[in-house]
Amino acid sequence: MKPFRIFTIGAIALFLAACQRPDHTTLDSQAPLQRLLDGNARFVSGDLWHPHQTAARVKETASGQHPFAVVITCSDSRVSPEILFDEGIGDLFTIRTAGNLLSDIELGSVEYAVEHLGAKLIAVVGHTECGAVKAFVEGGEAPGHIADLVETIAHEAEEQAVVAQIGKNLPACIAANVLHGVDQLRHDHPILADKIASGEVQLAPMLYDLKTGKVKVLNEQELRKEYHLR
Ligand SMILES: [Zn+2]
Fold first, then answer.
1. Range of 71's domain?
2. Rounded to the nearest whole angstrom, what is the distance from the C-alpha of residue 94 to the centroid of ligand 1?
3. What integer pLDDT is reported at residue 9 of this predicted model?
4. What tens digit of pLDDT does each residue of 33-89 get?
5. Alpha carbon of 63 to ligand 1 centroid (Å)
6. Cα 215 to ligand 1 centroid, rounded to whole Å
7. Gap from CA of 106 to ligand 1 centroid (Å)
8. Can you give the pLDDT at residue 2?
9. Does residue 66 lie in a domain region?
10. Total domains in the fold of the chain
11. Does 225 have pLDDT greater than 60?
12. Whole-model pTM?
């Protein structure tokens, strides 16, 4: 094929790809959970849109933010929400701690995002091979404040139920830790509990797979039934 023809075909392909890129209305019209899942599908397939990552977006959001979702996830360097959900500036209100653990400070941050910024979805995203949960599973002495992380996980009712039934199984303990986070949010009074109960704000327990880059929604009801959790 002649170089000019290859160039022309390449230019047309680039033009078509650019046409498929989202404008604000495409993303804003999506339901929050579907938007996260679609973004993750783009990340996994390599067809990234990199939305809202321009200087124009910086300017546009300088006077205010309206993130559509709160993402609570692990501080693990391999679990970066904007990257794995293919989002940009002003889209996600993120809270990250080792083991995606929630104390009062983190709960206050979630409340702020929901009450003042209008976020409509709270996703708790655990991940495979989580070091914090692994430290609990493996036991032994943890130095300094790392011990607090392990202690917190050990005291979760969901963890205790899983351990009592099947022992310290890492994937099950990771799932139990996510369910605990979701349950904390569901019982967070006075701000979150009512909004979640009324459906105004959606909760999503999720799991990120370090090997594939995929995020899946955990079936909370099924898991609670399986481990005889309340
Ligand atoms: Zn982790």
1. 24-226
2. 15
3. 65
4. 999 999 999 999 999 999 999 999 999 999 999 999 999 999 999 999 999 999 999
5. 33
6. 14
7. 16
8. 63
9. yes
10. 1
11. yes
12. 0.90
Compute CA distances 13 → 10, 19, 36, 42, 201, whole Å.
5, 10, 26, 18, 40
Q: Does the pLDDT at position 220 exceed 90?
A: yes
- Ligand 1 center–CA 131 separation, angstroms: 5
Question: Looking at the domain assignment, is residue 163 inside a domain?
Answer: yes
**In CATH, what number is assigned to the domain containing residue 108?**
3.40.1050.10
For residues 145 and 170, is the Cβ–Cβ distance under 8 A? no
Partners of residue 93 on adjacent β-strands: 70
Q: How far is the CA of 128 from the centre of ligand 1 (A)?
A: 8
Residue 51's identity, in one-letter code, is P
Q: Tokens 């078509």 map to which residue?
A: 16
pLDDT of residue 154: 97
CA of 76 to the centre of ligand 1 (A): 5
Mean pLDDT across the stretch 174-183? 98
- 182 part of a folded domain: yes
Q: Which residue has the tokens 């783009």?
A: 42
The residue with greater pLDDT, 22 or 207, is: 207
Residue 87 domain flag: yes
Tokens of 65: 């933010």
- Separation of 35 CA from ligand 1 center, angstroms? 23
Count how many Cα atoms sit within 13 Å of the Cα of residue 143 in the half-sphere of its side chain.
0
- Residue 121 phi, psi dihedral angles, 5° rounding: -140, 135
Three-state SS at 216: strand
Check pLDDT > 80 for residue 16.
no
